[in-house]
Amino acid sequence: MPVVMQSVGQVASQHMVQIRPQVSGMLKQVLFKEGEFVSKGQRLFQIEPAPFEAALASAKAASDNARGNADRLETIAKKGYVTQQDYRNVRAMADQAQAAYEQARINLSYTDLRAPIAGRTGSVTVKSGNIVSPGDALQLITINEMRPILVQFNIPQQFLGRVRQYQAQRAIHVSVADDKGTSALDEGVLVFMDNAVNPNTGTIALKAQLPNAHEQLWPGQYVTVNLQITVEAKAVVVPQTSIRTGQNGNFVYVVEQGQAATRDVKVDRQMGNLAVRDLRVGGASRCF
């Protein structure tokens, strides 16, 4: 029988990117449909490139001219017709012109906005035809990585030792169901344990990674998390319906020599319609 701890968790993207403009200009095109899945490197937006193309052409001409002047002056400087200081000044101007050209080339590349990760897009905040700028308060779009995805949840601090013990032996299995715990959604493994207990709640934060191949899990969604820390190989179980409660706690009816009798029992947990014996109680095996 699996030893399972249940908790309420929340789905979170393990990689979220906000797309913002890095240059100012008119948003010329939106090249995708909001809400759709986009691939890494896919074109998303285009800012009007014409002003940046003109700036690049101007910077290139200035760089070529400055570099030509520096090359000519280098030959003259070697013959002593100009001072070394004059030559260094001209060469510095050529280097500055080359740097300006490189910056203009980079600015032109910023007019083509692409997806840095694969994921699901959110709502587009700015439509084509509007002026965008790096100083805008809102991002153009947010991309959430969906495959794989994370589920964040907490467990009481008293279970920390058991979880660490079994995690050191093997990967701990995690299954996720809907918020009512009735419909299974996905399965994965525990990938993160916080390095400190929250002193306000007495719990520790954990994260599980799930493949989410069919995108049944969405960021922000509340789910039921089942953390299977181990499997009890020889568990003693009875139907849950056979467990009765009396003044001294739980008991079951047993048959002895053809007659019904009661026996006190200690239940560790319930798994579906089965009650599992508490192994920490000495002599409990005779009760079942």
Could you outline the blueprint of secondary structure elements for this entry?
Blueprint: E1 2-12, E2 16-19, E3 25-30, E4 37-38, E5 43-47, H1 50-78, H2 84-109, E6 112-114, E7 119-121, E8 131-132, E9 141-144, E10 149-156, H3 160-167, E11 173-177, E12 184-193, E13 203-210, E14 222-231, E15 237-239, E16 244-246, E17 249-256, E18 259-264, E19 267-271, E20 274-277
Antiparallel strand pairs: 1-10, 1-14, 2-9, 3-5, 3-8, 4-7, 5-6, 7-9, 10-13, 11-12, 11-14, 12-13, 15-20, 16-17, 17-18, 19-20
Helix pairs in contact: 1-2
Tell me about this structure.
It contains three helices and 20 strands. The chain has helices at residues 50-78, 84-109, 160-167; strands at 2-12, 16-19, 25-30, 37-38, 43-47, 112-114, 119-121, 131-132, 141-144, 149-156, 173-177, 184-193, 203-210, 222-231, 237-239, 244-246, 249-256, 259-264, 267-271, 274-277. The longest helix has 29 residues, at 50-78.
Helix content: 10-25%
Straight-line distance between termini? 15 Å
Question: Rg to the nearest angstrom?
Answer: 33 Å
Q: Any idea what the shape is?
A: elongated
Report the count of strand segments: 20
With strands numbered from the N-terminus, the spatial order across the biggest sheet is 1-10-13-12-11-14
Overall pLDDT metric: 91
Question: Largest sheet, if any?
Answer: 6 strands, antiparallel, barrel
Structural class: alpha+beta
Beta-strand share of residues: 35-45%
Oligomer class:
single chain
Low-confidence spans: pLDDT under 50, at least 5 residues? 281-288
Helix and strand sequence:
EEEEEHHEEEEEHEEEEEEEEEE
Number of helices: 3
